[in-house]
Structures are given as structure tokens and as C-alpha cells.
Design goal:
The complex is a heterodimer of chains A (252) and B (298).
Chain A: H1 6-16, E1 23-26, H2 30-40, E2 47-50, E3 54-55, E4 77-78, H3 81-89, E5 96-99, E6 103-104, E7 110-111, E8 114-116, E9 121-124, H4 131-137, E10 140-144, E11 177-181, E12 185-189, E13 196-201, H5 207-212, E14 219-226, H6 232-242
Parallel strand pairs in A: 1-2, 1-5, 5-10, 10-11, 13-14
Antiparallel strand pairs in A: 2-3, 3-4, 6-7, 8-9, 11-12, 12-13
Helix pairs in contact in A: 1-2, 2-6
Chain B: H1 2-8, E1 14-17, H2 26-34, E2 40-43, H3 48-56, E3 60-65, H4 77-85, E4 92-95, H5 98-109, E5 115-117, H6 125-128, E6 133-136, E7 143-147, E8 154-162, E9 168-169, H7 177-183, E10 186-194, H8 197-201, E11 207-209, E12 216-219, H9 237-248, H10 250-262, H11 267-274, H12 276-282
Parallel strand pairs in B: 1-2, 1-8, 2-3, 3-4, 8-10, 10-12
Antiparallel strand pairs in B: 5-7, 6-7, 8-9, 9-11
Helix pairs in contact in B: 2-3, 5-7
The chains are: A alpha/beta (252), B alpha/beta (298).
Chain lengths: 252, 298
């Protein structure tokens, strides 16, 4: 089988982080594939929550959108969006949520609103969707996004979803971003400084590569390990079942 | 549909065609375009392709939303042209998060002055939208954010089945169909099937909108394409992917509007033009729920 693309490695590494998790709030795009991959590999008991109002989704095909009919058929519960956000998310039932963004800073604050100035943007991005309340209320957040100097920036143009702010979050919020997975490596956040810290390099990626793709001077953990390459089984599930047209996984 | 839109949608109105991915009434959007309504404020959590089409057609001056994209595909290019380059005209934006928009409908439906939620802390959203306001709890030190009620002039809500009196039943993703209907001044229910009152009464838990608040019932099967109606037809993901290419090019988009909206007289023409083969591909196999016993208490 052909080797993994950076995007595929990113998705597989994110999926593996869901081992042992129970209730997972699924976002659109790569997180959608990662969560469904996890349910078919390392986390068969994972309860998938979709903001459209689904708890315990068991989609038989990869939903292109996060409002697909396959999320409903066979699910444990379908509820109003109000109930989903108020009772499940704000009520504290979500263990982990996946978020993505167009820009992230060293403290895990995310921008999905605009590139450039808000009132005359260079690029108008989708906006918050549920991300702002998810970032605040989920017990923890996994971030999954491509890495380059355009995405890993010193200062984000707009703070859509708060991460570790400038170092510390209020104690009564969820714990915030705990892991960032990119096409190059993985990061965790330092407990004291709230700053992103490299923990893993994906196969074939050097320390220099990740620094070149980061706009600030990257903190590097004491023990940086190499991410185990995606297995044949993980690649097969992703390519044959979840994204047969390669819409997400073979872009990067 | 033509009569309902002519009677109930007026230039300058705040219009909400809701439905979260599911039950988005594209046929109503197309009819609004055909009738060349103007200066509308369009509200929806996710503007989706339907508002990209309406905004490209020039019916809208302002958009109230929480996530603008082509779900699973990318951008809404007609909207982006207007926001980024005022091409061909500027578009005013009023932006919330999903929970904020849901809260706005909740406040609107329940005649409250605001809805409180735990969101927006340390986000830049309140700085660009002064209607999102931090307030103190009257019972302690805590603060929450308030969003104002949203009471659309018109809500257009698609449902699977309704009685002629407008009692409407939905299954699958519920989105904000119920909340937007109760919040709106005028309500149009569009249904896949018109059913006897007895069918509605056989399963009252499934009724999300009572005819009491409904101004018009339109029977318009397959009105959601390329969105979907659970159990009736699938989401046409191919169309959403194709729309990305169409909408990137404003000339191609205009051509699409000519071919699929302006030159057709009704949604029945659209359904026929799409062709039976496509509809066959979009028809799911059956999976019925188990009936429940409500009991007789006479």
C-alpha cells in the first residue's frame, strides 16, 4: 500500500489520541475522519456527538457534512441543537472535542473568522460555528490542523476560540487545548506557561522542518519521539471506507 | 409556493430559511429569487449553498449567521466576493456562534429580552458584534454572555409531513426548526407529504410545530435538494462539491441561476430537470422505527 500523506498521518495520529476517551464532540473536516477512524480502530466505545443534535452516532459511511443523514440512522439520540449545546456541551458531558483553525498561536488560541482586518478581510473564513463555546466548555480540546508559517503564527488575526489565552485559562472552564496534531508533528501544552511544546515528529520530519513551519521560536520537549507510521489497517479503513475519493486525506 | 412567497415574504423582511444541513428548503429560496425580492436580511446558523445562491441573485442586503461555508467542501464564494471585495455590492454581516444563534431563537420564541450562555469569554466576537454582551449573574459573582432575541418576519420551515391545518412533524436532525417557527411573526411550513390529521394525532410526540402558529402550508415534495429529507432522499453531496466550481466564477453562477431558477416556473420543473435517474440515486433504502403504544384512555 502506498505510504501515508502528511494529512493521513495527521488524521491517524489524532485518532490514536482518542483511545480511552468516552464522549467526543466531532468537528467538520479532518476531525470528522479522525473520530470515525478512532471508532473503527482504537476506541470502539467512543460516543460521537455532533453539533447538529446527535449523541451516539454510528455512521455507516463517512459523512461529508456534519449534518449527514447517516449520523441519524441508528444513533442513540437525536435532539434539538439547543439541547445539544445546553445539556450535553454546557452541561459538561463532553470529554474531548476536536477543533481546527486557519491560524493558531503558541497558546492554542484559534482563528476561524478572518485573515486580515475584520471589517475588510483579505480572506473571510467560516466563523465560529460551535467552536467558541466548545473551546470553553469541553473538558479538553484536541486541535488538528495543517502546519506552516501561515497557520502557526505569532499573532492570530482574530481570536474566535480561546485556548490558553496568554498563558492561563480561568479554572472554571474546561482544560482547553491539550494536544495539537499537524501534518508534521504533535504538541502538548506546558502546565505552567500554557505554551505549545513539541512532543512528536512524524516519520521523515526533522526538527528544522517544524521550526521552519512555525512563526515563533518553538519550544521543544525533553523527549521528542517519532510518531509510529500509520498501519496498513488504519490506512485501509481511511482510504477504502472513510474517504474513498480522497477529498480530505490526499490533499496534503 | 409561489403564492405563499408572494403573500408572506416582503421586501426588506428578516427571513429565516432554517434547517441544519437537513430540511433546508431550497425551493423557497429559488422562489424568492424568481420573485426578485429585495433588501432582505437573511438569518440562518449556516448560510449554506441556499444563501450563496440568494445572495448572488441580489435579494439580500444583510446576513445574520454563525458559520458560513459549504459544509465539507469549503467556501461560499458569492458571499465571500461581497464581503471581501464588495463585488458586486457590500454585504452587511451580523455574526454569532451556533449556540448564540440558537439562544437568539430561544429568546425570540419565549419573548425574553435576551438569552444567557457560557460562551464568548476572551473571544473577539463581542468586540465586532456589540449585541453580544457580558452580564453579571443576579445570584453570584459569575458572568455570562447575553444575546438578543431574533424574531424573523418570516420563517420558512421544511418538514417531512404536515396536516392541512399546518401541524407539522419532523424526524432526523431537528436543527432549529421548532425554535425559529415559534420566534417568527409569519410561518410557512413546506412539507414532503400532506397527511390526514389522524396521522399527526397517531404520533403527537413527533409534532414540532402546531398549525396554531402556521400561516401557510405548501406541499412541495423534494423541495430541499441538494439538502435532504431524512427517509425521503439523501443529501446530494455531488451537487455541493460541484457548487464550489460554479460559484467561484460569477459568470458561471449567473448562468446556473438562469438555467435552474429564472428559466423554470416552479420547483416541479426543477425536480423534472434534475431527472429520475438522479432522484433514484438519492433515494435511500428503508429503515423503519418500531411503533410505540400510546394507549387508549376512554
Amino acid at each position: 500500500m502506498e505510504g501515508a500523506t502528511p494529512t493521513e498521518t495527521m488524521i491517524v495520529a489524532s485518532a490514536r489520541h482518542l483511545a480511552g476517551e468516552r464522549v467526543c464532540f466531532v468537528g467538520i473536516g479532518p476531525p470528522n475522519i479522525a473520530c470515525n477512524l478512532a471508532r473503527r480502530t482504537v476506541a470502539p466505545d467512543l460516543e460521537l456527538v455532533y453539533e447538529a443534535g446527535v449523541f451516539g452516532a454510528v455512521p455507516e459511511r463517512l459523512p461529508l457534512s456534519i449534518g449527514d443523514p447517516s449520523l441519524v440512522t441508528g444513533a442513540t439520540s437525536v435532539c434539538s441543537m439547543f439541547e445539544l449545546f445546553a445539556y450535553y456541551l454546557q452541561g459538561g458531558l463532553v470529554d474531548v472535542a476536536f477543533l481546527s483553525g486557519s491560524q493558531i498561536d503558541r497558546f492554542g488560541n484559534l482563528n476561524t473568522t478572518v485573515i486580515g482586518d475584520y471589517s475588510s478581510p483579505k480572506v473571510r473564513l467560516p466563523g465560529s460555528g460551535g467552536a467558541c463555546e466548545i473551546a470553553i466548555n469541553a473538558h479538553k480540546v484536541f486541535v488538528i490542523m495543517p502546519q506552516s508559517t501561515r497557520t502557526f503564527v505569532e499573532k492570530i488575526d482574530f481570536r474566535t476560540s480561546p485556548g490558553h489565552l496568554t498563558g492561563k485559562r480561568p479554572a472554571h472552564w474546561g482544560a482547553g487545548p491539550s494536544v495539537v496534531v499537524t501534518g508534521l508533528g504533535m504538541y502538548e501544552f506546558d502546565d505552567d506557561s500554557g505554551e505549545m511544546c513539541l512532543t512528536n515528529l512524524h516519520p521523515g520530519v526533522s526538527l528544522d522542518d517544524v521550526q521552519q513551519a512555525t512563526s515563533w521560536e518553538l519550544r521543544v520537549g525533553d523527549h521528542v519521539s517519532e510518531t509510529p507510521a500509520p498501519t496498513e489497517q488504519e490506512l485501509r479503513v481511511m482510504r477504502e471506507q472513510l474517504d474513498p475519493q480522497g477529498i480530505y486525506t490526499r490533499g496534503g | 409556493m409561489s403564492a405563499a412567497v408572494a403573500d408572506l415574504v416582503r421586501d426588506g423582511d428578516v427571513v429565516a430559511i432554517e434547517g441544519f444541513t437537513h430540511l433546508i428548503c431550497f425551493a423557497a429560496g429559488h422562489e424568492i429569487i424568481r420573485q426578485r425580492k429585495r433588501d432582505l436580511t437573511l438569518a440562518r446558523l449556516t448560510p449554506d449553498v441556499v444563501y450563496d445562491q440568494m445572495i448572488a441573485a441580489g435579494v439580500c442586503k444583510k446576513l445574520v449567521f454563525s458559520w458560513m461555508g459549504n459544509p465539507g467542501v469549503g467556501s461560499l464564494h458569492a458571499i465571500r466576493r461581497r464581503v471581501e471585495r464588495a463585488d458586486p455590492a457590500p454585504l452587511e454581516l451580523e455574526e454569532y456562534s451556533h449556540f448564540g444563534m440558537v439562544g437568539r431563537y430561544m429568546a425570540g420564541a419565549s419573548k425574553l429580552p435576551f438569552w444567557p450562555l457560557r460562551s464568548y469569554y476572551e473571544s473577539d466576537l463581542p468586540t465586532v458584534n456589540p449585541r453580544i454582551i457580558e452580564i453579571s449573574s443576579p445570584y453570584g459573582d459569575e458572568t455570562v454572555y447575553a444575546v438578543p432575541p431574533l424574531n424573523p418576519d418570516v420563517a420558512i420551515v421544511h418538514v417531512q409531513r404536515a396536516s392541512s391545518g399546518g401541524d407539522a412533524q419532523v424526524w432526523g436532525l431537528l436543527g432549529c426548526q421548532k425554535e425559529v417557527a415559534f420566534a417568527a411573526d409569519r410561518v410557512v411550513v413546506v412539507c414532503e407529504e400532506l397527511v390526514d390529521d389522524a396521522v399527526v394525532r397517531s404520533d403527537p410526540n413527533r409534532t414540532v410545530i402546531p398549525g396554531l402558529i402556521v400561516d401557510a402550508v405548501v406541499v412541495e415534495p423534494r423541495a430541499c435538494h441538494p439538502s435532504y429529507a431524512q427517509g425521503y432522499y439523501d443529501r446530494d453531496n455531488r451537487f455541493y462539491v460541484e457548487w464550489d466550481k460554479i460559484a467561484r466564477d460569477s459568470a458561471r453562477l449567473s448562468e446556473w441561476l438562469d438555467d435552474w431558477v429564472y428559466s423554470l416556473s416552479s420547483h416541479q420543473d426543477y425536480v423534472a430537470k434534475l431527472g429520475e435517474e438522479r432522484w433514484a440515486q438519492l433515494t435511500p433504502t428503508e429503515r423503519w422505527s418500531q411503533p410505540v403504544n400510546y394507549g387508549r384512555y376512554d
